[in-house]
């Protein structure tokens, strides 16, 4: 309610109160009284004064009442209706009727008059143009255009235009639209468009819309010139449009409130105006509707509509009768309406002023109530209003009594409220004290937590540094133990001593494996696990994993084989060291927990995109099996399925945890499937995501139409070999017994498709396969020569290493036996890793052999040799050259601060025939590298005075300044937690090996340096070396 809002703002204007009260009293007076009566009950229990007041109200109801609402309503309603309502209504209706009739009549008269004037003017101007078009000289020139006729015609045209008033210029075009003559005062259009000529020929007359120029409005008329019913030219005249403008803009008869619009239809929905309206010169077109549409349809009349400015007007319309021209006369009635509205507003204002004057008489008590309410709101609880008189009591008097009662109750309630506020304030003060203590306690706890966090971070850092240092300190003596043990094993010792040293080497390698697992687990827990991205051969990694574990599998009497699907790519980008670590762990567990049967590794494509591929790997064994209730313990640190297995098989319980974490780091996962029964085994699955090479050009070998027979008593191994040979486009069959092999050989020979090669397992059902070899020696015709050469080469990194080392050339697995004849049967013996099998092959006359698990690169080489598809061994000159390069002595600088490690390096280098110089720290290494030239530098990383990183940086700087030869530097690091591998390469070193030193790997490294193939090679992670050492 506006009254209450004004009171709340503290307004003391009596006029304001009077106006607002008047407006509200007309509609809500009765409601206000009811509200006042309810409020007197709802506020609280009435005191004695309120009871007395209620009695007074009851007694006063019997007196004469005169409501303010009634007074104001009667007075204002009577005044307004009488003074303005009825007269205004009658005046408006009558005036509107008369004005509309008068306007209609006047508009019809004006439109009729203007129509005749426009029609007469336009006909007159077109007649004048027609007279010029019929001039004889002009027609003659258009018929026969010669120079003499042109001069006469041009003179005739100028004369005709000059004598006709309002004609400004003229031009004559021939029937093709080309300008032939003109008045010469201006430069007309030189050529008329064909569509313009066609329009003029059709209508014989064309009127151009007026356009504004510097001299005023100008329009043109185009007339067709005919001679003997044939169009010979077009006359184009420009006319002063001043008279036409005065006719359109003439306001005579429109009393200054109307205007004349003349238009011509343009399209289906638009009317083009001859001249823009007076009130809006920017309008040139109007929509085709209303009066304009009626006039275009040939009708005449009066219409009420909205004009172009949105004003309601009366429009008289009729056609002009000239080329579909229409006219429309607007007569706005705004002036009359404005006069009537102003009159009504004045009369209403007088009524309002009279009501305000009357309301002021009643606003003084309301003003008093407002001031009292404002004072009460400011806290003055003793404020009261004066009571009204007993005579002629009205609602205001009742309101005063109710207000006094309300003020009394508010005063009582304020006292009660103040008492409660004091009590609540005391409670809040006590709560604030408790909260302040709690806040202080929390701040103290947060400070302690922050200190504990700092202590934990420092402890974690100390743990990492401790593990790194312990790795260095433990690996250093292990380096001496392992390498000196291997040196002793290479000397002449008794069998008993050899057995003892084997135990020492095994124990040291087992300890190294435990250290590696613990360090890997610590790196994973610390979030410092690093995954490399490098190009590598997936086939080589899988073959490497099964090769290093083949001896353990053979010793346990197990069949170890692998299967790779044909769609799995060989060259991918990822971390080969970590992948090999997972393989070795899972395959090692399979061998460890399997008493008999086999361990099978498989690889297949799970998903792939344009840039990446996800490969699914599995390691399946036929061992003990894992109960489903125990499978959840497999991937928990330091836990095993059965605690008794730790005593039987050993292990820390970290291998599977580390493998699962590595699989997750490579974007995959690991899980296990097992029925929990012995001899049914378990299958460990894991996935890993790798990047695909943009251009992979791996060529598979092809032995097209070659027939091969695989004889193997192990079903899985036999099926894998048969599938592999079929992928190489061979016709392959498999059999598990000697008798079955004989039957297939005989059957194939009889059918005219004998076998070209036989792949024979050395041991069939526990006995050797010499029976089948003897059989084939007796019947060599069962095997036919393979005449088709291989069509593609298949080289991998393993084969290149095979061809590049003296060991593989002179001592390879498929070397020729001297005891056999020059022409050997194409039999490939599948042997174990035991050298006894190789000796047995020579004894029974088998020239070609390879060990199981079969490596693809070696099998391809043996197949080509057996099928006579390539040279079997290099010539003597090449072999001697390789032998000489491998035997070249190197001059090596050994930088090592530990005396034991120095002795290990010295013994190994002397054994291999290399010369060396010792340096105890990095400073000595810098001095000695500048004094003499070395072929290679073996640099320890952690040394006193000057460490390996600083020494390498100084040596590289000296080489750069002196433009000297770059000496290869190999780092020897025993750290495993601080990422020394990448740090070594970034510091300028060429390669790094981990301690304890692997004698075989170090010898291969030195051989590569001797052959000149060391520079630019990328070696795998040191984790691969660790795996190879403890397997």
TrEMBL record:
TM segment ranges: 68-93
GO (cellular component) term, any one: membrane
Reactions listed under catalytic activity: ATP + protein L-histidine = ADP + protein N-phospho-L-histidine
A Pfam short name: HATPase_c
Matches recorded under InterPro entries: CheY-like_superfamily, HAMP_dom, HATPase_C_sf, HATPase_dom, His_kinase_dom, HisK_dim/P_dom, HisK_dim/P_sf, Sig_transdc_His_kin-like_C
EC top class, as a word: transferase
Record-linked SMART domains: HAMP, HATPase_c, HisKA, REC
Keywords: ATP-binding, Kinase, Membrane, Nucleotide-binding, Phosphoprotein, Transferase, Transmembrane, Transmembrane helix, Two-component regulatory system
Domain Response regulatory residue range list: 707-867, 891-1010
Single GO MF descriptor: phosphorelay sensor kinase activity
Limits of the Histidine kinase domain: 469-692
Residues in HAMP domain copies: 360-415
Residue numbers bearing the 4-aspartylphosphate modification: 761, 940
UniProt-listed Gene3D superfamilies: 1.10.287.130, 3.40.50.2300, 6.10.340.10, Histidine kinase-like ATPase, C-terminal domain (3.30.565.10)
Known EC number: 2.7.13.3
Protein name: histidine kinase
